[in-house]
Design goal:
The complex is a heterodimer of chains A (305) and B (306). Chain A is mainly α. In chain A, 76% of the residues lie in helices and 0% in strands. The termini of chain A are far apart. Classes of the chains: A mainly alpha (305), B mainly alpha (306).
């Protein structure tokens, strides 16, 4: 009896310390979440702030300083920004399409048994770990006459070997018997790919389409190096780099806004934050719906090294 | 004779798998044009390359470009800075997602867990340009981080233009951006741990704390080892986009890394051969490190990249 009590007391004491521990964990996790989220909230608050009140206010923001949508209104007048937005949408759609076509072809052929499979796979994998580097790559693109054209954005780096391996792993997970019986019925490789492999690999296709699309959305380096001579093709990220990182002047049509030149500097400051919001929101809207595919992709990739 | 056998076998294979070889054509063209042709361009590291003369017309100089680089005053600066940023990120950043995953795993409220995960994965989806522009905004003269740091410390002026602060800014923001995303793999590993182990430990009267560090952490060791070894293999290839976007000439003393130097040598100074030599040096060191890391991984964890 006494022994029994002892055990119970023992358990009670433990669960108390456990409860404290869990409490501490909740606090720490909440803190981490707040720290991660706050910079983004700050941008959101700043973007809706009143330019003059924001300029006076220093330190943290817990709500917009004043309220105004002048930042967004001025972004509406920036023509280069919207042209960049349009170009990015184009690169995203066309580029991802090229990415996917080539990666599917590569992944499918690498999942089939033919003589040169191993050496070709090695040829591909080698490029993951070694390359020509900046200048030789630049000279190659230049010699092919691609600088200043959309091809310098769409083609270089359009197969990620990492994604190709993820997709191939997905393809290899499809029962061999399905493919064999199709071959028995006289189906060619193209039919097998189109009618059997692709419909059965929707999840991995979705995953790497998303990987590519996110990559396309954030791309800027190729544009910086190859599109110098044709700035009208700049994607959004390049416009953002020039205005936000390098601090070049925004092409806000200030006179349209009806504010004085002195105030216009403050308006531009706010509109930087509005630009960030406008160019991040599409990703954040899509993100919750596609999160599981990303997580799945990371997992497959990790297992395969 | 052997070659002849190979050829007949290949011809047979070509006929049998004609469709596959046709599908391969665009893929191979891509790799040849955009991966292997630039690799051939590495030759200019051994010449005094003049664009007008071309790769084959320029004068050969042997290893001169490499020797120049090793003797240049920038050599130690950029190697040191590269190592600082990558070791800093590794030492401070690597354990973070592990503990984050172990701690969050103890949270039984699924909704809370999901919200925390969603929030901490979020920075992964903000583009590098925007992340860097925000870092610059916040650590500039008027930025809120500068204001906060300057009130609680004796520091004055903007943080981003202070060469003493560059490394801290780089490393802290790197952790902020990646810890959530990098924890995914640990969550996956944790979810595959046998639940009976916890059950048995609970019956034996183990506390949560003990279970976290006597069961969960040891079970994660293989995953941790693989990731750690692979990270060591990438130690010289620290993410150049971020350093490039954050640096200004004022902070070059701490912010200039090998890859940003390669960029400047090539595209700003137009010193193509020098730039290529430095880049090639870096790639070769990377490849060596990765090979060593890989064989270590093979030996200790039985998993490897190739």
């Amino acid at each position: 009896m006494a022994k029994n009590k002892n055990i119970i007391r023992h358990k009670m004491r433990e669960s108390l310390s456990d409860r404290i521990l869990v409490g501490v964990i909740y606090v720490v996790m909440t803190f981490l979440a707040v720290i991660t989220l706050y910079p983004m909230l700050y941008v959101l608050f700043a973007s809706f702030s009143d330019p003059i009140q924001f300029a006076i206010k220093k330190g943290l923001l817990f709500k917009p300083a004043g309220f105004s949508i002048i930042g967004y209104k001025s972004v509406m007048t920036m023509r280069t920004f919207w042209r960049g937005y349009g170009m990015t949408m184009f690169y995203l759609v066309a580029g991802t399409l090229i990415n996917m076509t080539l990666t599917i072809l590569g992944a499918y052929t690498m999942s089939r048994k033919f003589m040169l499979r191993k050496p070709i796979m090695l040829l591909m994998i080698f490029t993951m770990y070694f390359g020509g580097g900046m200048i030789p790559t630049y000279l190659t693109i230049k010699n092919m006459g691609m600088t200043g054209t959309i091809w310098s954005i769409l083609l270089p780096g359009c197969i990620s070997v990492y994604n190709l391996i993820i997709l191939r792993t997905g393809f290899e997970g499809i029962p061999e018997s399905l493919v064999e019986s199709a071959e028995m019925d006289g189906a060619g490789d193209l039919t097998i790919l189109w009618k059997i492999i692709l419909p059965l690999s929707k999840a991995s296709l979705a995953t790497i389409t998303l990987f590519y699309a996110v990559g396309r959305w954030g791309e800027w380096y190729n544009a910086m190096v190859y599109l110098e001579s044709n700035r009208s093709l700049y994607p959004l990220q390049m416009i953002l780099r020039e205005t936000l990182v390098e601090g070049q002047n925004l092409d806000v049509a200030v006179d349209v806004m009806g504010v004085s030149t002195a105030d216009s500097i403050l308006v531009k400051e706010i509109s930087k934050y509005s630009m960030v919001i406008i160019s991040t929101v599409p990703v954040l809207i899509v993100y919750p719906f596609v999160q599981k595919y990303f997580v799945k992709g990371v997992m497959i990739g990790a297992v395969k090294g | 004779m052997k070659f002849k056998n190979f050829l007949t076998a290949f011809r047979k294979d070509l006929r049998k798998h004609a469709a596959i070889y046709i599908m391969l054509i665009p893929v191979l063209i891509y790799f040849v044009l955009f991966c292997y042709r630039p690799m051939a361009g590495l030759l200019i590291a051994f010449e005094n390359y003049k664009p007008r003369k071309g790769i084959w017309g320029s004068d050969w100089v042997g290893l001169k470009n490499f020797i120049n680089f090793f003797q240049s005053p920038f050599f130690w600066r950029i190697v040191k800075n590269t190592l600082w940023l990558s070791f800093g990120t590794l030492v401070f950043g690597f354990p973070f997602p592990i503990f984050f995953a172990i701690l969050l795993n103890e949270v039984k409220n699924l909704r809370f867990k999901k919200v925390v995960q969603t929030i901490t994965y979020l920075p992964h989806f903000i583009t590098m340009v925007i992340i860097c522009s925000l870092i610059i905004q916040f650590t500039n003269t008027e930025g809120f981080i500068t204001t906060m740091v300057n009130t609680i410390s004796s520091h004055t002026g903007a943080l981003i233009t202070d060469e003493k602060c560059f490394r801290a800014i780089y490393i802290i923001s790197e952790i902020w951006q990646t810890f959530g995303w990098n924890s995914i793999i640990y969550f996956a590993a944790i979810s595959s741990i046998d639940a009976e182990q916890y059950e048995a430990a609970r019956i034996d009267g183990a506390s949560r704390w003990q279970m976290m560090f006597k069961i969960t952490l040891p079970e994660l060791i293989p995953t941790i080892m693989i990731l750690l070894i692979m990270q060591c293999g990438r130690i010289m290839s620290v993410g150049w986009e971020k350093a490039f976007l954050l640096q200004t000439p004022i902070t070059y003393n701490t912010s200039d890394i090998i890859s940003t130097y390669v960029y400047r040598q090539g595209f700003v100074e137009m010193n193509y051969s020098n730039s290529t030599a430095v880049g090639m040096f870096n790639s070769v060191v990377n490849l060596l490190l990765l090979t060593v890391a890989n064989s270590l991984s093979k030996k200790f964890t039985e998993s490897s990249l190739w």
